[in-house]
TrEMBL record:
Residues 311-706 form the Glycoside hydrolase family 65 central catalytic domain. This is Glycoside hydrolase family 65 protein. It holds the Pfam family Glyco_hydro_65N. Keywords: Glycosidase, Glycosyltransferase, Hydrolase, Transferase.
Amino acid sequence: MSEWIWEYKGYDPAQERLRETLCTLGNGYFATRGAAPECAADAVHYPGTYAAGIYNRLTSDVAGHWVENEDMVNLPNWLPLWIRTPAGTWLSPDTHTLLDHEQTLDLHSGTLERTVRYQDEEGRCLTVRQLRLVSMAEPHLALLRIELMPEGWSGQVEVESALDGTVANTGVDRYRSLASRHLTDVQTGSSEEGTVWLGCRTSTSGIRVGLAARTVVDVPSAEATTVEERARVARVLRIPVTDGHTITVDKTIALHTSHDPAISDPLCAAVDRVGRARDADALLDAHRTAWQQLWRNAELDVPNSAGPVLRLHLFHVLQTLSPHTADLDVGVPARGLHGEAYRGHVFWDELFVLPYLNLHFPEVSRALLAHRHRRLERACFAAADAGHTGAMYPWQSGSDGREETQRLHLNPRSGRWLPDHSRLQHHVGLAIAYNVWQYCEATGDMEFLHDKGAEMLAQIARFWAGMATYDETLGRYRIRGVVGPDEYHDAYPDAERPGLDDNAYTNVTAAWVLARALDVLRGLPEYVRGDLFDRVGLEPSELNMWDDVSRTLHVPFHAGVISQFAGYGDLAELDWQGYRDQYGDIRRLDRILEAEGDTVNRYQASKQADVLMLGYLFSPSELQGLFRHLGYELDDDTWHRTVDYYLDRTSHGSTLSSLVHGWVLARAQRAQAWDFVQEALASDIADLQGGTTGEGIHLGAMGGTLDLIQRGLTGLETRGGALRFDPVPLPEMSEYGFSIRYQGHWGVQLRLKSDQLRITVPDSDRDPITVAFADRTVPVAPGESCTLTLTESGVTGEPRHQVTRDDFR
Ligand code: BGC
């Protein structure tokens, strides 16, 4: 195993789903799970293919209720490449003897190789080597090459290369009782050149899908026929093979949907494209080159054990959100394009992904924010329908930005369907506003800020100002009836209505958003100001109100710590040790308690970071400033006590939790930081949330761990037009380097080694970058470097940063 190569030896059916997810190949337009091409979907294998933004809505009968769900659609399976020897049965790892089985994911080239040595029931050995790619160069194309070599026999093999439209969305066991057939009107056919095609459409969203496959073999005497069955079409090749000689079959496929620009009909486009596709070697070359370009724009060098995992995380982030995404109208699917968990929905997880992308692929961030902007109107409708003002973004969304959060969810432990109130996590809008701001600071994209950005900030700010009600007794505004990032708590014990009051995370971030919205609106150039005010219907008095709310939102405290919400401190303490002893893994404490007939709402027990999210989003100085703005003093002691308090009361039932705790503890220079960072790194490779990775990656944790190096450890902030640093030492991560793209400067190098952080700005004709640290700033011109020398703080009270302009030119 190197940083670039992930090898899997042997075949273990129990691990197959996980492996398929981790070996998914994609290009931002579509992705296909790393399933064996000779296996159909069953209890072991799940060959899913998903195109970004392709959703369909179905109605199911759940526990006597009709429920509607929108799902990211599992598209026709293009993988099938079945093989049989003269023994006559199709070879499969589940039915035949495997003499060898090895799979290699090559991140550098973006390819998946698999070598299987089969023995048929009559003792014939056949080595099968497969290589696949989902082209990063030509996003509608994919390739599957197989090389076959008989050992000790000669004769004929039959290869069936199919497109299979009989698929359904059956990748997640918990959803088994829900309707799953999204494809209809499947038509198949073939052309004279031997290309087979399959067209279909999604049943309610009416998206047409076209696939075409060209299968060629390097044996001129091979015979080929086409077989059409119900919703499936195949090219069948009968190939003479000779002992010890390798033959090669190349299956090239093209995929189009009616969402694609510049096409007339997706099926015609797919047939045309596959007909024009270059040969396999040329496809492979172009694909590798495209990946090299991506790696250049996302340089990362972490020499310790975290390096390979971070590389894998980067690979999967880029396969989900690549430069091709910039041309699409899609959001950030929480589980990638890698599986069907959460139905391919978009949550707040972009909060953990965009800050990374902003500094490498800003055009992708811009497209993802534009996706949110296109759904701003819908978010305003949602707010109005609920009796609010401004924009209420949905907690979960799919195609059109309506709320897709289910009303009921299944507790697999108790088998009960329970009300789901997670839609009260309105803080998702705050994450969008935060991302708008971060994107604009990182890129200097004033055009976006002054137009779409300002509009989103204004409508989100308006929503929160409207949600705030004045409490005479407190002399402060309160926001009531919401759910915070810790979604365990969705109501007060025995309350009739769901929702909690004064969620500190929500209130503090709402204050920040209100203040930023005011900054932007007040600073708008005169020319655009009037237009925007007209469009949004803003009056100066409304802005004064926002200012007032942003300064007087209530933040509850108890026992000298910030309360997660009003009354958190009055909840019962949980017997953590008792539950750990009884259940071992208590990450999903909510399910355990519900199955016991209890509820997590009664306890001081959180699923994931909630208050501590504040330390993830804001640097200590910014957070202190924000509390001051709200009329509170947040000293270091209070923050440290708060960190300890929630550390003891969090079960980490989401992969985001270890990430945020790792980040916050690293910033606070705590010894436990590395444990959490390691856990965040292991989330998917070790499938820490108990079998969930097989249903898709955790994109937030993957993007977040990359950002932990980029912003978390360096303290990098793009604030006030400067690149600010405040590095913290993490002894286990004493050396790392990466490059960023900042305000039009490409390839700005950052390298930390022992106690030095060096920033190098490549030569160009652009203006110098202002580098800031503590209370000092230094301009670093293109072609120059600067080094920050870090010294121990606290003990001597000396400034932690000493600056030396060195002479690396
Ligand atoms: C987490 C949410 C997250 C969602 C999708 C849930 O388990 O609690 O914060 O947005 O997963 O990743």
